[in-house]
Design goal:
- The chain has 322 residues and is of the alpha/beta class.
- The protein has a single domain, classed as TIM Barrel (Alpha-Beta Barrel), CATH 3.20.20.
- Strand 1, helix 1 and strand 2 form a beta-alpha-beta unit.
- The longest helix has 17 residues.
- The chain starts with a strand and ends in a 12-residue tail after the last helix.
- The structure holds iron/sulfur cluster (2 copies).
- One iron/sulfur cluster binds next to loops.
Length: 322
Amino acid sequence: MPNLMLTNWCNYKCPFCFGIDGMHPKRPARAMDDDTFLGILAWLKRTEYKAPIHLMGGEPTLHPKFEWIVDTLLERDLPITVFSNLATEKAPVYTEKLSLLPINWVVNVNPPYKWEGRQRDRIEASLANLGTRASITFNIMPDEADNDWAIDLIRRFNLNKHIKVGFILPTYTHSNVSLREDEYAVVAERTVRLARRAAQEGIDLAYECGVPTCAFTDAQLGELWRLGNRVMSGCYSRLDIQPTGEVFYCLPLYTLAAKHYSEFPTYDAAKAWFEKIYAPYRRIGRRLECATCNLMCPDACNGACLAANLNGIKNLKIDTSL
Ligand code: SF4
Ligand code: SF4
């Protein structure tokens, strides 16, 4: 099931955000309206999936009808995962009301020393409300010496013992801050350090898409295996849907191809179409070794991130005819 962007604006302005090309201020600020939301639900019903619907943004708790959207999905017995930074004014209210309902929350957090003003109160109150309903996700940054704060948060608020880590990826347009080539080894080392500390607390790590396996040395990969945190990161996305109803492969590829969901008979047809238009470019990797690497396939590594690899390709021609 897709990622529904309920809003295309956010209370944070992270320079590394890879949604930047599809969001305000690059695009007019929009909240998904009732007709678009209900139309997408009817469209999704044509595909027999039981995977959760992801409510995202921007920041989903900024949507003026967030509670109605959640109620509508629950009434239809559709599983929900909310992706939120929990730093909005309404986040403590929503998390208190919804904490007993079967909703999972994935909280994208920055290190607590970066929380400003009322953000701290809101995030802490919300995490206390959610407890094991919440798991955290964040990018391993080259300028953060360690990420032990994540383990402290899990312990302090009794959160789900699971962390999803990512490496900051560039959009196709390279309009965000992303890792320099020499920083991959730095963040790989920090990831292993976090995995070691996490394992001591019974916390496991998983990986966002676009993390190249070869950023890690063989010794690091072996250690991650032993710790039960094997690197698994492909380039095979659930589709994203903008508040306007435009569907696209993933946020970093937004500027390359997007079509209104109603142009496709079903979600499966949309997914197949996006896989088809990007298939000719799947052999391009982030380094020459990708050409002969046995991990080179969408659900293993696929040369790390397709959006990053397509940047700078001359004569790029994505065929967007249906
Ligand atoms: S191009 Fe692939 S790896 Fe990059 S963000 Fe999209 S799905 Fe993830
Ligand atoms: S596919 Fe490319 S980026 Fe991925 S592990 Fe192999 S060489 Fe590295």
